[in-house]
Amino acid sequence: MKFLKIKYIGAVLLGAALSSCATYYQIQSEFNQNFESGQLEQAARVLDENKRAGKKKARFLYYADQGVVNAMLGNLEESNKWFEKAYLFGEDYQNNYANVAASFLVNPNTIVYPGEDHEHLLLLYYKALNFLKLNDHESALVECRRLINRLNALSDRYKSDKKYRRDAFVHNLMGIIFEASGDVSNAFVAYRNAHNIYEQDYTRLFGLETPNQLKQDLLRTAYLNGYDSDLAFFERKFDLTYQHKPNAQELVFFWHNGLGPVKDEWSINFTTVANGDGFVTFTNEEYGLSFPYNTANAEGGGDLTDLRVFRVAFPKYVERKPYFERAVLETPGKRFALEKAEDINAVAFKTLEERMLQEMGKGLLRVALKKSVEMAIRNGGESEDGEEQTKEEKQEEAMREGLSFLVGVVNAATEKADTRNWQTIPHSIYYTRVPLKTGRQTVMLKTIAPSGATQKETFLFDVGPGETVFHTFHSLEYRR
């Protein structure tokens, strides 16, 4: 009866646990609904009313979301305070090894979310843009130097040219900031680095070529620096002839199109094959996967082959395809196409793909450890072969069976992938430069869907002599 009661309790616990296995996107549903519909004040209210999230394991994402929402509301200084919190968290983050160990007996959500590589770069991108809008070029240059440090760390971590280890758009942004600050020498170097990465990495990894605007910026800064040989080299390479036209005043416009991917989970069943040498091999014919695991020293002498099929959960990205596919800026009598400079969606998919074997290894180790605990409980205190069990020993065995079953229920219920990621960033970033006259004037953004449907937004700028103004606009629409 006790064993049946434990089974009943286990079934109830399993149902309750599985019903609560929501993804991070679902947990944040109220905030996401407000943000995605453009109700930014309500989204900010949801964040402010959930201050405890700033102390929990996903606080990096709480800080980052606060930064984005405040930036879109025009609270640029407040936005940068939140982005700085997220940046410092990333700088100071250290693994709590006790929590890491615990994650192998539960799931990866029990540890602090440290942020993805591209998410840390985007933090500094947002900060730099906020400073540029505040006309604080010196502080924007500080973010440039931080970006350089982050990029160097990324390059050191990943040596292979098949991995995402260099960011073309970040170098492009640094060139824009250096040039706006009057440092055309460093601007040329940054533009050249950006072009090289587009040509050597981005075309191959993401199908993204050097934007025409970047080519013009590279030619212009070569001319302004008096680098005649470089100017001639890039004119030949781009098949362009540079005609210098001094830009007295101009607008640098960044269009954030759509929303980046969300993390979900997928699961896969592995069958165990005993090799007779203390190893069990997890195999999956559908995906052609094979992972050996040593069970010879498993505590309690558990035999994992008693259970032939295992379910393991892994993270995956789900793309949110933008509603709009292109955009132009219009001034009286002129039109300027916005060009894609960063495909954040593609970068996110690439970074997860690069570590998927590592994710699989961790997932299988997690399940193997869980099953070892189950077997240790089940097999502990067994009678010697040939000995008849007493009534008390039979009761104890039944209790062990029940407890092992209950542990198995908990293990199944807690097998969950880490679905946390920064979900308020754009799908892609586009940009262009627009020459402006001094004084007050309007610029129209026209966004265009594949169907031909358009949406228009008008912006008013008051431009001083020789000034470069910066602006961003985020189209939140995506195809559901």
Automatic annotation (TrEMBL):
Carries keyword Disulfide bond? Answer: no
Q: What name has this protein been given in UniProt?
A: Tetratricopeptide repeat protein
Q: Which residues form the signal peptide?
A: 1-22
Native source species: Marinoscillum furvescens DSM 4134
Q: Which UniProt keywords apply?
A: Signal
InterPro entries in the record: TPR-like_helical_dom_sf (IPR011990)
Q: Which SUPFAM superfamilies match?
A: TPR-like
